[in-house]
Every structure is written in C-alpha cells, then in structure tokens.
Amino acid sequence: MAANTAAITIKDDDLAPLKGKVVLLTGGSSGIGLATTQLLLSLGASVVLGDLLPPKEGLDHPSLVFQKCDVTNWKDQLALFKKTKEIHGRIDHVFANAGISIRANYLATDLDENGDLKEPSFQSLDVNLRGAMNTATLGIYYMRPEQQNGGGSIVVTSSIAAFQRFRGVDYAAGKHGNLGFVRGMRQLLIHEKLPIRINAIAPSWTETGILPAVIMEQIGVKLQPPEVPARSALLLMADESRNGQLLHSTEGKIQEVEESVLVPTAEEIIGKDKPTEDTTLMRMLEAMGGEYKDKV
Fold first, then answer.
1. CA nearest to 66, candidates 77, 78, 55, 82
2. Model confidence band, residue 89 (pLDDT cutoffs 50, 70, 90)
3. pLDDT value at residue 1
4. Across the strands, what pairs with 7?
5. Which pLDDT value is given to residue 100?
6. What is the mean pLDDT of the chain?
7. Which of 45-49, 57-61, 188-192 has the lowest mean pLDDT?
8. Do 233 and 155 contact (CB within 8 A), yes or no?
9. What is the Rg, in whole angstroms, of the alpha carbon atoms belonging to the chain?
10. Which residues pair with 47 in a beta bridge?
C-alpha cells in the first residue's frame, strides 16, 4: 500500500495558541525537552520542568519553574504535578518526554553469586515506558473536568523505533509500548468523553546529548536539531484537531504516520468490512457488563 505521508510545515502562527498555556514536561533539561522548553517560553507559555538535574544552560525565566523529578518514582511525579497545580491552578498540556538509551543485554552471560544468569536491566523500560505512562496517567487525572475547567492534551515521546525493526531491544520495546499506550488511551478517552487528547512524536536520529555526535558524523548520519521534534510536539499541543496521531521527524522533515499509514494498513489487513479488535473488545465488555465493563 502506498504511504500517504505528506510533509507537514509548521508555521509560527500554528503554535500561537500556546501563549498563556501551562505546560508540564519531563526530561526538559536537555535535548528535545530543553528545545521544547525554550520554544514554549518564547511563545509566552508557562513551563514547569521536571528532571533529575536543572538545565545546564541555567534558564532564567520568570515563566519557568524547575522541580527535581525521577520519573521512575511515583512520589516524585506526584510532587511535580502538585507543584504545577499549586503555582498555576491548572495544567493545559503534559509532555511525557523523559527518556534514556539502551541498557539491557538479552544475550549476556553474566552470572550471580549462585552461578545463575542475572536478570537483564529494566532501567530503560522503567524510564521510557513506565515513567511515560505514569506521567500521562497523572496528566489525565489533573486535566479531568472536575479538576479544572476544560481539558488538555498529552504528548508522549516515542521514536521511529516504535514502528520498525531495531536491535536496541529494550529501547525498541519501550518505544513500541509508548505507541501502544497512546493508541489504547485515545480509545478510552473518547469512549469516556473526556476532553483530553493524546498524541506522540517519533523522532529519528536527533541531537540530544545521548548520541555520540562525532561517531554519527563519521558514519555519515546527519543528526537533526532537537528543535524539529520539539516543534512537532508543540503542534500536537496547539492543534485541537489532532488526537491519536504520531508525528515522525527526520532530517528536519515532519510527517504524520499513525492515521496516514499505520491505521489504514491495519484496516487493509483486517478487512474494512470487519470489526477491529478494539471494537470487538468494546462489544465483549458491554455484553459482559458489571465489574468487567467498569475496568475499561
């Protein structure tokens, strides 16, 4: 099936609706998060940034608040959201961006003191997947209508590794999980009629401080500046028509992938005259009723 992925041009005017908005983001002290923070501040938004360390550049701005936060720690994340609500009284957008690179080796032969194989590291999955899911869960809770007027949006940093083969196994698994979470939550939020949108970005190789820039240059890979995926994240916040989308960026070009490629491909495989698995699940739960229905 031919891909229908026309390039997206993001104009400054497209991001103007973010003026005066309150944005909470994790992993905002470097890379994509820092570029997003700087762009938000330039647009007149208020930012509460959660990270292990403050930005090295020492951003000094009256509309920026830094809070130390380990996204693998629920209490840290809870404190970040409480502080944002305490300062601003509301949260308009949440950017679950904190992430790390590959940590696990599933082919390792390291043994413990008993001579048994050691369990692989879950650090990457804890940060990239569990941390992002918890950020989004808290965001949805704090943006519910009973918590404040209106709704808001969640943006999750996934990766091109979410929809292609990638040998960084734990990283790929986490980024696939990010996309799965966004897909599932979109369905639930719509079903529950909550005025909260959820989307994701899927950057390719980007200047983040994680990648060895010199080595990448030696092997002929051009890293895109972090401002490119940052602008894609801001578009997902600003454009209220976008819900359940996945914006891929590479070498400065931005394309929508979920609605233009992945969903139509799945429909073609399943058959357009047949219900999707999600539709079947909804019908099954409705038929079962009671406690089962209440869980989804």
1. 55
2. very high
3. 42
4. 255
5. 95
6. 93
7. 57-61
8. yes
9. 20
10. 23, 64
Are the CB atoms for 204 and 224 separated by under 8 Å? Answer: yes
Residues with active-site annotation: 158, 171, 175
Give me the phi and psi of 84, to 5 degrees please: -60, -45
Q: Check if the beta carbon of residue 268 is closer than 8 Å to that of residue 4.
A: no
The conformation of residue 9, written as its DSSP 8-state character, comes to P
pLDDT of residue 22 exceeding 50: yes
How many Å apart are CA 213 and CA 209, to the nearest integer?
Answer: 8
Residue 291 pLDDT more than 80? no
Q: Round to whole Å and give the CA distance between 288 and 70.
A: 40
CB 207 within 8 A of CB 225: yes
Instruction: Beginning with the edge strand found earlier in the chain, give each strand of the sheet holding 22-26 in spatial order.
Output: 64-68, 46-51, 22-26, 93-96, 152-157, 196-203, 246-250, 253-256
What is the rounded distance in angstroms from the CA atom of residue 139 to the CA atom of residue 24? 9
Q: Is the predicted pLDDT of residue 209 greater than 80, yes or no? A: no
Using an 8 Å Cβ cutoff, are 176 and 162 in contact? Answer: yes
Parallel, antiparallel or unpaired: strands 253-256 and 246-250: antiparallel
Instruction: Report the half-sphere exposure of 227 (CA within 13 A, side-chain side).
Output: 6
* Whole-angstrom distance, CA of residue 121 vs CA of residue 219: 28
Residue in 35, 206, 143 with CA at minimum distance from that of residue 47? 35
- Per residue in 119-149, pLDDT tens? 999 999 999 999 999 999 999 999 998 876 6
Distance between CA atoms of residues 37 and 42, nearest Å: 9
> In order of start, what are the domains of the chain with their CATH numbers?
12-256 (3.40.50.720)
Angle between helices 31-42 and 227-238 (to 10 degrees): 50
- pTM (2 decimals)? 0.93
DSSP 173: H
Compute the distance between CA of residue 40 and CA of residue 196 in angstroms, rounded to an integer: 20
Residue 150 has pLDDT above 80, yes or no: no
Tokens 């830094």 label which residue? 66
